[in-house]
Amino acid sequence: MPNIKSSVRSVKTDAERRAANGPVKAGVRNAGRKVEALAKAADKAVAAEALVNASSLLDKAARKGIISKNAAARKKSRLAKKVNAMA
Asked: Other C-beta atoms within 10 Å of 38: how many?
């Protein structure tokens, strides 16, 4: 534990941020996994619907600064590629 007062505050706020950001990141990962699983299951309509949900979660996370906007765009692009590749 740090001795300097500002460092003590930083440790505390870092822990609070990490606790708040964790569920958001987990939600983004789970949404991406769901899209990939549906893309493999060959149900395009349901996969497209899940892609919309995942894109929304990625945009929200990027807006809050939890992930960078480029990372969100990259993940959305890769998921969309998998859904669009379905016959």
From this structure: 21
Per-residue pLDDT reduced to its tens digit, 15-44 = 999 999 999 999 999 999 999 999 998 889
Task: Kindly write down the DSSP assignment for every residue of 28-74, as one continuous string.
Answer: HHHHHHHHHHHHHTT-HHHHHHHHHHHHHHHHHHHHHTSS-HHHHHH
Location of structure tokens 């480029």: 70
| DSSP tag of 3 | S
Number of other CB atoms surrounding residue 16 within 10 Å: 10
The letter for the amino acid at 60 is K
Residue with tokens 């990625």: 58
Asked if 32 and 80 touch (Cβ cutoff 8 Å), the reply is no
Please give the structure tokens belonging to residue 37: 């699983």
